[in-house]
Structure formats: C-alpha cells, structure tokens
# Entry
Amino acid sequence: MSDTHHGAAHAAPHAATHAPHADPHGSPHPATGLEGADGPRRPWTVLAVALAAQILVVLDISVVNTALPTIGHALDIDGGNLQWLVTAYVMMSGGGLLLGGRLSDLLSRRGVFLTGLTLFTAASIVSGFAGSAGQLIAARAVQGLSAALLTPSALSLITTTYSGAQRRTALALWGAVGSLGVAAGVLLGGAVTTWTSWPFIFWINGPVGVVALLVGTRTIAKEQVARPKLTDLDLPGAGAVIGGLVALTYALGATATRGWWSAHTVVAMAVSAVLLVAFLTTERRAARPLFPPHVWKLNALVSGTAVMLGITGLLVGAVFLTSIFVQTVLGYTALQTGVAFLPFAFAITAGTIVARHLLGHVAPRVVAAVGLGVTGAAAGLLSTAGADAGYAADLLPGLLVMGFGVGMVFVPVSVTSMAGIPSSHAGVASGFLMTGHEVGAALGVAVLSAVASTAGSLATIDGAADAFSRGFTCAGVIAAVVAAYALWRMPAQRVSGAIGHVHH
# Structure
C-alpha cells in the first residue's frame, strides 16, 4: 500500500521486530525478536479512535447477556433460542474478518475503518427498533459484518501508526479492551436495561459512534492507494469461510433444542465441513488468496490466534452461563447481574497489569499458559455451585480467579501475535488474529451452552444449576488443553524492554 503521508497512517512499516521485510512475492519473513526500534512519537488520537471503535465492537458481544431474559420476554423468544442474539453477531463478525483484513490491505485503511464504523452505528440503531426475534437477529448479523470491517482496519491502523514502546503500549491496551470490554458489557447492559429499556443497549452506540466518526475523519491521515480489481478480493474464498463458520456455529447452537445427533445438526455440521474444506482448497489455488498460505508459517501469529480463540471462547461462554445462572437461580435483576460482574472486570484489569510487567521478565508462552491454568482452576471452582449457591461464597471467588487468569492471557497474545508482520500484510494478519477472537466468542457460547444444556434446561432453577456445573467442567478441560498448546507453540523469547506506558 502506498501512502501520500508517511505520518500517522503509515508511521511504522516495520515496527514490530528487527526489520521484517516482505520478499518479492509479498511473503513476510518471520522476525527474530519481539522488539522494534522506537520511531518518531505519534499522537495518541489515532489509538483513542481505534480503541473507541473496538470498545463498541467488544461491548456488543456481551452487552445483550444481561438483557437476554428481558428481550426474550419482550419478543417472545424461548430459552433455547436466546443464544442466537449473541451468536448471530459473533459468527458473522468472525466469518467476515479475513475479508475485512484483506480489504484493509488493498484499500485505504482509513476508508475501510470509517465505512465499518458508519455501518456499525447504523445497524446498532436499527437493532433497537427491532419488533421481532427475526428482525433483531438480522440486525445483529449486520452489526457483526460491520465489525468485520471495523476491527482489522482499527488494529492495522495501530500497528502501522506506532512503533517501539508506543506500539507495545497500544497493543497491550488493545488486549485489555478485548477482555475487559466483554465483562464491562454485562454491567452496561444490566444498568441500561434496568434504568431505561432494552433497546437503549443498542441505541447508546449511536452517539459514541458519531463522535468517533467525527474525530476519526479529522485525525486519521488520508492515503492514496491503487484501485484493486474484483479478483484481488477472493470473494469465493470469503463466501466459503463465512458460510462454513456460520454453518458450524448454527449446528452447535441448535444442539440445545434439537440434540447432537439429529438430522438437523448432522447436516449443518456436514455443510460446514464441506465449505471449510472448499475454503482451504480455494486459498491454495487462488491467484490472490484471501489469506496468503505463507502466513501460516508465522508461528507467533498462528499460535497467538489459536490461544486467542480459546481464551475468548472461555471468557464469553463463562459470561453467558453466569448471566443466566445469577438471574435464573439467584433471582438477580439485570442491574444486579451487571454489578455482580464488576469484581470480575476489576480482576481482568489486575491480570492485564500483572501480565504487562511479567512480559519483560518471562517468556510470553509462560505468561499465557499460567493465565490459562488459573482460568481452568477457576472454572473447576465455579462448577461446584449448585441450586442452593450464594453469590459471595460460591460465585465470587471463582469469578475473581477467572478474571485474573483471563487478563493474564490477552496481553501476551496481543503483544506477540503481530510481531514480524510487515505493513503490507498488517490488515490480513489483524483479520486473522481477530477472527480467532470472534470465532472463539461464537464457539465459546455455542459449545458451552450445548454441553451445559445436556445437563438441564437453562430456563429452570434446577436445570440452570446443573447446566452451569457441567458447562464449567467443560470449560476447565478446554482451558487445560489450550494452556498446553500455548506452552508448546507460543514464542519462547522474552519481550526485550518493558511495555511502555501511555504519556499524555
């Protein structure tokens, strides 16, 4: 991508590591370290706008959780179908992120970012006016597709604007937003639902999006790019991966109401497998693949994305199950549920702070593996809660430990995954990483909800308690598997130098 300004939009073309370069075929060589030289300091306004947009995207993964019973009652949605209000959003976002990342590399990052932000804001407002389950699920799907444009372009703007310590600080903050935003969304959803009505959990995005748009148009530098051809976008590959991920999430989500071995589930699984195999085949043969095959050789990115998928799935799935539990079993209101998640959010913040300091002394894979181990232990603790559980004695300790563990994982993943990615591939790499985030969120809710539902109905007190226990037992097993993978595959070398602090 050629820029007219070598300033804000393209400040750090090789900022990630010791001068990674693209070869003549556009293939980035993996870097040998995780540290880059400090370039000229850049204003934090681009980061602020990118984080504001990402906060909207991440909040909307979880903001509906505390409002689910209220929305279900208002729109007459039964308990088994409530999860679609969450998964419709994340499965479309996750499926579209690779295309969004490709667009960010081929087109103006600024243009893709502002377009995504505009569509997201509009879809949020439409969601609040939905009068039926179908309308709301459709609007949520459009929100997800908008987020698929927004997220990789925002992360790409960060990685190409900042270098050195500024870049590490920006990526650490990005990681913190990814984890803390999910927990904060539960509180926001509960407060807004209680004090106003459920449509406002979507309408609140309107003014925030408009302000971010106004600031973004003034602060993000314009770029001049060559107009790409339609064949450069690999639309067949995009259609196959979106369809495959949607079919997979749909199949998992339907198990709660139709069973694991129903014809409905088996057919959806088969369709997903066919489409995902078609995607991989298309990528090998395409002249301009949606996701260049050589990027699979970048271990830091691939391993970081896999761990991102696992930890986000655990986080969002845990928030979903706990939101249902405290409202169904403990009888909490939406606002009380949101407040109940506050300690969880604070624990995530503490985990990110500890991880940032540890990264200067310990290998990223060790920090991530320890965080996942802590998360798994917390899941085991939460799985012991029964129908007679109390918040302070039975839920709070597990939520505090889980929040701390989750916070520890997001920072090393965010800081190391983009190491060694040249500017020309920043968008597709960002899209790959955030695909892990969004697909993890979709699969986390779908898998844990499906496993939990085998023990009992989420709509009754005894059923929800049994389901909660089985869901968190599954979460503990998943955390252990992902921890072992992180220790095996994530980068072994330490981040040289402390992660910088934000200076105003």
